[in-house]
Amino acid sequence: MPLDQLLIDVLACPIDKGPLMWFEEEQLLYNPRLKKAYEVREDIPILLVDEARDVGQAEHDRLMAEAEKGGVPETGLAGHRPSEEGGLPEPEDLPGQEQAEREAGS
Predict the structure, then answer these.
(1) pLDDT one-digit tens code per residue, 20-57
(2) In three state form, how does the secondary structure of the chain look?
(3) Which of 38, 66, 75, 96 has the fewest C-beta atoms under 10 angstroms from its C-beta?
């Protein structure tokens, strides 16, 4: 089952806080920078550092070749998608910005 797009938009690697690659068929989130893999079990990403699996060079190369074919979304894009007018959204247009401003003002 695919991960919810909102979840994909906000997930990040717990180690370097960077984006992950989502390999749906393998139920795997992958950080190619650190060569760390995180399983997704029953639609729940297991993003615990102790549960991360080291990926060898051969598997890394296979995953990257698959990603180059397309269809492998990257996580952590919330707030980084171009707005309809083009370019990045203004901070006030980001989800939760109003609530954060209200809480900061109280």
Answers:
(1) 999 999 999 999 999 999 999 998 999 999 999 999 99
(2) CCCCHHHHHHCCCCCCCCCCEEEHHHCEEEECCCCEEEEEECCEECCCHHHCEECCHHHHHHHHHHHHHCCCCECCCCCCCCCCCCCCCCHHHCCCHHHHHHHHHC
(3) 96
